[in-house]
Amino acid sequence: MALQTALHSWHSSNGARMVDFGGWDMPVQYSTIVDEHNAVRSDSGIFDIGHMGRLKVHGPDATSFLQMICTNNSANLKPGQVRYNLVCNEKGTILDDILVYKHGNDFLLVVNASNRLKIVSWLLNNIRSLNVQIEDQTLSTSMIAVQGPNAISLAKQIISDDPSKLGYYFSFDSKTMNVPSLLSRTGYTGEDGIEIILPKGEEVRVWEKLVAIGCKPCGLGCRDTLRLEAGMPLYGHEIDENTNPLEAGLGWAVKLDKGEFIGREALVKEKNTPSGRTRVGLELPGKRIPRELYPITKNGIALGKVTSGTFSPTFNKPIAMAYVPANLSAVGTDLDIDIRGKTEPCKVVPLPFYKRKTT
Amino acid sequence: MDPIKLRYAKTHEWASIEGNICTVGLTKFAVDLLTDVIYIDMPDVGDPALKGDSFGEIESVKAVSDIYSPVEGEIIEINDKLVSDPSMISKDPYGKGWLVKIKMSGKQNLDHLMTHAAYEKQIASESH
């Protein structure tokens, strides 16, 4: 039986098409993917992201514990700061990609729904003699993302403190419709926006208010096209336990000089003698859409595979991410994609495909 | 076309048969499931159409699906306007969104094609 967020019945009774995602029954779309995608790029959309895992890490050794578990630096996080991290195993391959929030003396980890239980047991198994407690708050809280150029000004109407004062990738405690909540200027769409964590039971009221003031309900379908345009990896596609952060282009989130952490040794080796493949963005001049696992070829020789592909609603053309040999990864390189037996040309383009204009 | 009078394949194509000419399209149910249709890959005029074989593809943002021929024959016309504006299939699946016309070869047994009532029953069970 799939898990349900507290907004599940709202979704079902408001025309959402539901799909299983990471063990949760989630809305994929209410209207159409393109319609919802465009709302987020031009105005604002809201996403139920209650399925994301929310794990509190606290105790006197919490900082040194996270330094051991994660690839990025958690020791120099400022109060309220949020940082992208990878959790790697000893082989230096990726168990999950997560956000680490510095919250008072504690930390909050936001992990992928599909990896939550794996990460909880990974954390518990690696505490060893450290004085650290892990609290899985996923089922006792809800999480809503408000995303788009108008997201902050709309969300501001229901938040006690001004969210426009938040720096990008910072969070604060405030009240949303008078309910204590944690707000962060984060997201997975390539747009400005805010993510709200609040106690379970309050989410329907907040969600309906956001809809009433003009935020469009959006499903996981456009969340995928939005993050793909923004060049963001999705666990199970661009990254998994057979991928290391360096070939995935996530080396910026790996601090080899911060001290010992799980996977460090393997990643130092990888840095000195790279795997030879790398994640790239691809663009196609045609209309046929490359899908996951389609082979990348050159002169008929298979070189790699598509990890995610879609039709980009913003650019009106097919785009994809893929792994290719590093020597064929330069921007402008011409490659081919085997789309169900027919070869289509494509070109390596810079990632991200989409970058919002910052004011 | 009047959906009541059409015949339907399990794979969600509709067929309108007049004499030996079969016009083929996709049902509203199928098109609504796809949403965001981006591209329709059509056969060429003169291509053979084999009953139950794919003669084209429909790409939406989310997925690609084959389009199967409900009858045996030869493609004699394709809907060019739909190629240039694939959204037509969502707006008018039983009218301007038709796909191809097939000239049927000889007398064919059409028992595999459902009536409107039988098709309605199939989609009712699929949407649960």
Query: How many strands, which pairing sense, and closed or not: the largest β-sheet of chain A?
Result: 6 strands, mixed
- The total of helices of chain B stands at 4
Low-confidence stretches of chain A: none
Low-pLDDT runs of 5+ residues of chain B are none
- Distance from first to last alpha carbon of chain A: 46 Å
Order of helices and strands of chain B: EEEHEEEEEHHEH
Biggest interface, which chains?
A-B, 15 and 11 residues
In total, the number of strands of chain B is: 9
Q: Which overall shape of chain A is indicated by the principal axes computed on the Cα atoms?
A: globular
The count of domains of chain B is 1
| Strand content bin of chain A | 25-35%
Tally of helical runs of chain A: 8
Distance between the termini of chain B: 27 Å
Mind telling me the CATH superfamily name of the domain at 276-349 in chain A?
Aminomethyltransferase beta-barrel domains
The strand count of chain A comes to 19
Can you identify the CATH superfamily of chain B? Answer: RNA polymerase II/Efflux pump adaptor protein, barrel-sandwich hybrid domain
* Structure class of chain B: alpha+beta
The assembly state of the depicted protein chains is: heterodimer
What is the CATH C-level name of chain B? Mainly Beta
As a percent range, the share of helical residues of chain B equals 10-25%
| Global Rg of chain A | 20 Å
